[in-house]
Amino acid sequence: MSCKYSEERLARWMDSSEADLPVAEVREMNRHLASCTPCRETTARLRESQTFSRMLRVDAVNSDVVNHVHQRVMDQVADLRRAPSWVIQVERSLFFGVRRKYVLAGFGSLVLACGVALGILWTVYRHVETTVQIPRGAVPFVAAVSERVIVSPPAGNEPQRTAVRHVKLTPKTEAVAANSSTPAEHPPQIMVKLFTDDPSVVIYWTLDGNGESQ
Amino acid sequence: MEAAALWMSGIEPKGDVAEAKEIATILERAIAGDSAAFEQILRLYERRVLMLSWRLLGNIEDAQDSTQEVFLRAFKYLHRLDTSKPVEAWLVRITVNVCRDFGRHRQRRQSLAAEFKIPRVTNADPYSDLASDERKKMLRDAIAGLPLKERAAFVLRDIEGLPTSEVAAILNSSETTVRSQISIARVKIRKAIEQLLGGQR
Fold it and tell me: B163 contacts in A (CB within 8 Å)?
């Protein structure tokens, strides 16, 4: 067929009376068919074919065949045991009347989504805190440094934020503490030196024995 | 849908609400485990399921096996049926799925040309001779030679007479896809009929 309309499109148009196609398309096709003989012939053959296919609607099966199938089904059903009614009720209430596979698929998706979310959270926050263990004799104190330090900028520059890792210092073991020669009642002070992005700005921070800044 | 179902099952429509209530009652009893109620359901719909299977599979032997499988599945999963919805649609959906499985297992996806083993005849009007049982058998073979999805869409739409929207719902597909499958199937069937009868025009 040399026409711009394919046979498949004509076959689809055959359903136009049953609202299967947009009205505009049906009108366009009607206009075309009025002037195109090959398309009209093709459509006529499609209709004949469709009419014949519908003759299968009046087919009937022999009652003996139906009875035979009926007997086979009932024989099989007698051998089958369905779950007791209370199991069915429990299943219905558990799955809210939704098919089991959809509920399981939904639950699986939820678990997967939670796993991904937890993984992301762990990746983001795992660097926030680092614990460093050192012998009590060397630095026997607990010191805490702020997570972020805001450095005052030079005049005319924008403020800068510098992330500083949160460091927590703890005594290594009690045994080390017991062997330590440093008297606990006179803990030494420690000095924390913070470098900033600006090499001209260095922050010194003195901590006492209780880990508090001075 | 219900009208089509009744028509296809050979059951005379009684009217409707009362009958729907009666069927719902039978279904509830069957769900509760009453095998006599299940047998009533079977008696109501077995002919229809058998006919649909026959049209989808192309031969009555496979259709009998398919119908048996449909009702066994229905019995097994009856408790999942929503009794507020028409049972016909549910059974049709099971039938299509079972026939699809049968088609897959038996490797019946042959080309249309391979299905036609009868001698060709030359006739001015191929459709005039098609009323005989033999011709109908050839048509069934032609339908059985279609790819599974096209076959199901064609049978449900053009032979069973269901609206496209219901066909799409049963096949779990979009209406656009179903329309496309139906139109392709119509062209193939048209060519098959003319080819097998030597009526190339």
Answer: 18
Check A61 against B54: CB less than 8 A apart: yes
Contact B187/A99, CB-based, under 8 Å?
no
Residue A10 or residue B109, greater confidence = A10
The region of weakest confidence among A73-77, A94-98, B112-116 is B112-116
Instruction: Give the gap in angstroms from C-alpha A114 to the nearest C-alpha of chain B.
Output: 30
Residue B35 to residue A82, Cβ atoms within 8 A: no
Residue with token string 């429509």: B13
- For A18-71, the pLDDT digits (tens) are 556 777 877 888 888 888 888 888 888 888 888 888 777 777 778 888 899 898
User: Could you tell me how far CA B187 lies from the centroid of its own chain?
Assistant: 19
What's the pLDDT tens digit per position in B60-83?
888 899 999 999 999 888 887 877
Tokens standing for residue B45: 């719909």
Which helix or strand (DSSP H or E) is residue A162 part of?
A: strand A160-163
**Looking at chain B from residue 85 to 104, which residues have their Cβ under 8 Å from any Cβ of chain A?**
none
Q: State whether residue A47 sits within 8 Å of chain B by CB.
A: no
Report the residue from B10, B184, B189 with minimal CB separation from A49: B189
Tokens 């549910």 appear where?
B90
CB contact B67 to A (< 8 Å): yes
Whole-Å CA distances, B82 to A90, A188, B15: 16, 79, 22
ipTM greater than 0.85: no
Residue whose token pair is 């097998």: B196
Domains, chain B: 1-112 (1.10.1740.10), 118-201 (1.10.10.10)
Please identify which residue in the block is written with the tokens 């729907």: B20
Where is A115: in which H helix or E strand?
Answer: helix A100-125
Interface residue B113 vs chain A (CB under 8 A): no
Residues whose CB is less than 8 angstroms from the CB of residue B8 and which lie 6 or more positions away in sequence, other chains included: A57, B48, B51, B52, B160
* Residues linked to residue A203 through DSSP beta bridges, in sequence order: A194
Gap from B186 CA to chain A (nearest CA, Å)? 7
Considering only the beta carbons, identify the residue of B46, B82, B201 that sits closest to A69: B46
Burial environment of residue A199 by CB neighbours within 10 A (0 to 12, 13 to 18, 19 or more): exposed
Q: What is the rounded distance in angstroms from the CA atom of residue B158 to the CA atom of residue B182?
A: 8
